[in-house]
Amino acid sequence: MTTPTRRDCLTTMAGAAIAGLGLGSPVGTMLAEASGTIVKNGRIKQSLVHWCYAKHFQDFDALCAVAVKLGIPSIELCGPEHWPTLKKHGLACAIAGSHGFSVGFNNPDEWDQCLKVLNERIDRCAEFGIKSVITFTGMANGRSKEEGKQNCVEGLKKIVGHAEKQGVTLCLEMLNTRDASHPMKGHPGYQGDDIDYCIDICQAVGSSHLKVLFDIYHVQIMHGDVIRRIHQSKDYLGHVHTAGNPGRGELDTKQEICYPAVMQALVDVGYQGFVGQEFIPTRDAWDGLKQAVELCDV
Question: Choosing from 154, 173, 250, 256, which is the catalytic residue?
């Protein structure tokens, strides 16, 4: 008698969750018909960003089944109420959420709010084994870049020591300020809209537990030259996100970023963190995810 492997057990659980979708579910049918997992190489650790895909699947268990079938080990930026379900499916949460991007450390009046949320979330992450938490500069609201930077450095120094003690890394996200077409495609007024600016903040804080969240979509909009910037930023890469540009849609031929080449650059610089798929589906979510995961599995 052959002893089942952990992957066998997870696949069986995924099959049960797929069955729970119902035979009439198009997603359930496609998942059931998929042969093996989509990830074959695994040199890039991929993750699904919860907010993008939650409404496209029946419930969180169904999304977990999708991740397992894809061969993806994480669903990220989901609330703590979902973490036990992740564990049930053998999945991790690559990075946890915290305060939203509309508040941040560039504004001393918002420090108490950010610190309260981050302290609580860092402790919850340490208990559950989650290694990263997202954070933001906040909105400029008339502050100069230099003032915002100085405030961020001072404010982040108040929390990064706690992150170090708990073994959790804070990831400061850079967001684009150019796209005003949709509240999640661009963030006009956000202070940290320059990847070098965000890295400067990390350098000034001077902790190995503060890095940048390098969102390829946002970097492409604000800077371009993504592969060169990956090489330049390699020591400060804490987490990575994807999406097609323009439009924050699928990673397909309607957008301009060559994702296999970008993923190869991450491999080349020795990046060991996660890459979160964070596109907004414009068509069948399973098809888009399957395509994206295959492209990034270099």
Answer: 173
- Per-residue model confidence (pLDDT) at position 1: 46
Which residues have CB under 8 Å from 11's CB, separation 6+? 37, 68, 69
Is 278 designated active site?
yes
- How many domains does the chain divide into? 1
Residue 109 lies in a domain: yes
Residues of the domain holding 222: 6-296
1 lies in a domain? no
Confidence band of 27 (pLDDT split at 50, 70, 90): low
| Predicted model pTM | 0.91
Nearest to 12 by CA among 90, 85, 81, 76: 90
Q: Does residue 154 have a pLDDT over 60?
A: yes
CATH number of the domain where residue 112 is located: 3.20.20.150
173 is catalytic: yes
Catalytic residue among 76, 110, 250, 278: 278
